[in-house]
Amino acid sequence: MTVSEDGAVELAPSECRTLIAGGDFGRLAIRSSDGVDIFPVNFVMHDDALYFRSGPGSKMVDLTSDPRVAFEVDERSDTSAWSVVVHGHAMRLNSDADIEASTVLALRAWDPSDKFNYVRLEIDTITGRRVRLPERKVDRVS
Amino acid sequence: MTVSEDGAVELAPSECRTLIAGGDFGRLAIRSSDGVDIFPVNFVMHDDALYFRSGPGSKMVDLTSDPRVAFEVDERSDTSAWSVVVHGHAMRLNSDADIEASTVLALRAWDPSDKFNYVRLEIDTITGRRVRLPERKVDRVS
Predict the structure, then answer these.
(1) Could you read off the pLDDT of B32-68 as tens digits, one per residue?
(2) Domain assignment of residue B100, given as a range
(3) Best mutation site among A15, A19, A24, A27 for testing chain B: the one with the most B CBs within 10 Å?
(4) Which of A3, A31, A53, A71 has the highest number of chain B CBs within 10 A, making it the mutation to test binding with B?
């Protein structure tokens, strides 16, 4: 569907947190050695931080050299859509106690490789918007 | 829903192009002055390039200083999900002829500001995966 600019509403940080806490799938954007990269990831929110299992090995290397990340979650119904974007810092969890406390162990990784790396994303800022949707396109390619 | 690592399939570039050509909403990741940023955007695919109307003014500034971007589109059904990631270079369209030929004028921007900037993303690489989905979680955090 195409998202209209009509009726866009900025969401309060508290509402953004509620929305993202109800999600479990988002897109992680990081600086990479040759520009920028983006990965689909499953996640959990716990104690106001986001947790995920890392994907390809290169992702962990890039996070170590530059931990600044952006993370996006969105959801669409027939009549509206919202998108929440988190800016924050990612760090690898090295302690078994931290990993267990995060509840991240219940997650399955999108990517099967490198599945024993667990990452915490600490939220610096969280913003979001909700938009009304126009009529669904009927001529889309599928 | 949580995406399982079981049954993940790498998609051929031709299939990735077909999938992304059928989409109209994705997430654009760019290097920003203070790290990385990610934006939800509507897009069209035309002549093997992606076109979108730019959002906030800061996005255009960042694209001018570093045109390397990543762009992700995904879709989920009850039983499977796919995600396609494009790495490429973004450039502003300055010619009315280029803008009209791109078909981007039919798009509405996610963000109402700065709506007269049109951007072409030329594809350097395109990758994607399809995964089978496990049963939907019933105990999701909300």
Answers:
(1) 888 999 989 889 999 999 998 875 555 666 777 789 9
(2) 9-132
(3) A27
(4) A3
